[in-house]
């Protein structure tokens, strides 16, 4: 009797990315896509219904955060392993994703082969990180080196999400609606961000957020 195929659930707010992933995974003899979602709410519902072995999740999602989704999957469906596939810089986001409960992190600019390798490695119970990131983590563990972006790294996951959304051009009200919180809560996040980044005003916060977002896009 042949071994059943590993069931993979895709979570990304871009239909073209999901289609590319589905084609890639369904070509593998030992894997099959069992479901897709574009938002955290859809993902949690779909994961509960389909019971996948692995969920491949993006950081930026429609109506929510991939980091928060990873935490919820870990709490609600601990048997489901999560691999992050994202355009965002692994030096800043991978550690957050792993702390949230992810078992692997792959940059979207990597080859399709790396995605398949990551899935198989996680299915075997291992972690998957790039060689570069593994070296950075090892250096940090051995001699206490700071992360590559120590200032931004001081932000909590939610504060970083707010900072990122400002950098993308969203206004306070839009951020509140996207995160399903009040404007007062977003303003509280802004106050903490300004304090941690030593920024004196909302204008400085916006300027720094835009500058940082543009620098991420160039990587």
Structural summary, described in words:
The protein is of the alpha/beta class and 219 residues long. The chain has 2 domains: 6-141, Rossmann fold (3-Layer(aba) Sandwich), CATH 3.40.50; 152-217, Arc Repressor Mutant, subunit A, CATH 1.10.10. 55% of the residues lie in helices and 14% in strands. The strands form 2 sheets. The protein has a 5-stranded parallel beta sheet with strand order 2-1-3-6-7, sandwiched between helices. The chain has a two-stranded antiparallel ribbon with strand order 4-5. The longest helix is centred in the last third of the chain and has 16 residues, at 202-217.
Q: What's this model, at a glance?
A:
This protein is an alpha/beta fold. The chain has ten helices and seven strands.
Helices and strands in order, then pairings?
Elements (H helix, E strand, L loop, with lengths): L5 E6 L3 H12 L4 E7 L2 H11 L3 E4 L2 E2 L2 E2 H11 L4 E6 L3 H11 L3 E4 L4 H12 L7 H13 L13 H11 L4 H8 L3 H15 L4 H16 L2
Parallel strand pairs: 1-2, 1-3, 3-6, 6-7
Antiparallel strand pairs: 4-5
Give the CA-based shape.
globular
- Strand tally, please? 7
What is the fourth-level CATH superfamily of the largest domain?
Response regulator
- First-to-last CA distance: 47 Å
Number of helices: 10
Strand order of the largest sheet: 2-1-3-6-7
Major sheet, described briefly? 5 strands, parallel
Sheet/helix structural class: alpha/beta
> Under CATH, the topology of the largest domain is which?
Rossmann fold
Mean pLDDT: 88
How many domains, as an integer? 2
Give a quick set of tags describing it:
219 residues, alpha/beta, Rossmann fold, 5-stranded parallel beta sheet, 10 helices
């Amino acid at each position: 009797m042949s071994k059943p195929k590993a069931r993979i659930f895709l979570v990304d707010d871009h239909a073209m990315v999901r289609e590319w992933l589905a084609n890639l995974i369904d070509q593998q003899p030992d894997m099959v896509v069992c479901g897709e979602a574009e938002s955290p709410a859809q993902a949690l519902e779909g994961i509960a219904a389909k019971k996948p072995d692995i969920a491949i999740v993006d950081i930026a999602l429609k109506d929510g955060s991939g980091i928060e989704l990873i935490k919820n999957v870990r709490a609600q469906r601990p048997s489901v392993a999560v691999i992050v596939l994202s355009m965002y810089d692994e030096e800043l986001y991978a550690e957050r994703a792993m702390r949230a409960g992810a078992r692997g992190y792959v940059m979207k600019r990597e080859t399709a082969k790396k995605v398949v390798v990551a899935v198989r490695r996680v299915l075997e119970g291992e972690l998957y990180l790039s060689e570069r990131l593994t070296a950075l983590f090892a250096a940090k563990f051995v001699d206490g080196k700071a992360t590559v972006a120590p200032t931004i790294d001081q932000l909590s996951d939610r504060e970083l999400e707010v900072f990122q959304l400002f950098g993308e051009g969203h206004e306070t009200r839009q951020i509140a609606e996207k995160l399903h919180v009040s404007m007062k809560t977003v303003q509280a996040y802004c106050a903490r961000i300004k304090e941690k980044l030593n920024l004196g005003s909302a204008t400085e916060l916006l300027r720094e957020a835009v500058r940082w977002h543009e620098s991420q896009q160039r990587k």
